[in-house]
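Help needed: design a sequence for this.
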């Protein structure tokens, strides 16, 4: 089953994974016509805890709302920083809750899949019950890396193991 990856980086690891239809900035995720579950990685700088100092491009915040719409319509998963303001604005459920679309939120640390910083993240999942998600790695301890000390590319890069896991999850949606 094909999976559409929306808002990927130009050098995205998803471009190396089989069955991924990848929409980077050049391809423009807003042109996605549907028909497959999605993995949405919309820009987060306008929604996170440092939004007040972020340099947000015109129309950038709306991309996250588009990503939510695509997950709700076609099923899949949306990835954003933990406690993103997107959750309140889009009516996404907090961890432990389910929304009226049947979607729910899974809190993760990207370090479980190899990121060198913890990178506290929330995944909005629709179309897959919590007991049907792929097995998650067990990683004890918290790495000492800090997101604030990383270049933009390293901060934004999805660890290959997490990308493969998200593809598996989206296929189950």
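Sure. Designed sequence:
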């Amino acid at each position: 089953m094909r999976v559409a990856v929306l808002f990927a980086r130009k050098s995205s690891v998803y471009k190396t994974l089989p069955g991924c239809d990848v929409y980077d900035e050049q391809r423009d995720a807003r042109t996605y016509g549907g028909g497959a579950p999605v993995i949405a990685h919309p820009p987060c700088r306008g929604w996170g805890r440092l939004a007040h100092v972020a340099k947000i491009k015109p129309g950038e915040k709306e991309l996250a709302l588009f990503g939510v719409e695509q997950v709700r319509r076609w099923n899949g998963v949306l990835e954003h920083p933990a406690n993103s303001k997107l959750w309140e604005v889009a009516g996404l459920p907090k961890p432990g809750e389910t929304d009226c679309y049947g979607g729910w939120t899974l809190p993760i640390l990207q370090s479980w899949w190899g990121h060198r910083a913890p990178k506290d993240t929330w995944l909005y999942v629709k179309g897959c019950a919590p007991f049907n998600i792929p097995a998650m790695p067990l990683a004890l301890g918290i790495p000492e890396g800090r997101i604030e000390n990383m270049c933009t590319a390293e901060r934004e890069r999805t660890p290959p193991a997490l990308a493969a896991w998200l593809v598996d999850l989206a296929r189950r949606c």
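The mean pLDDT is 90.
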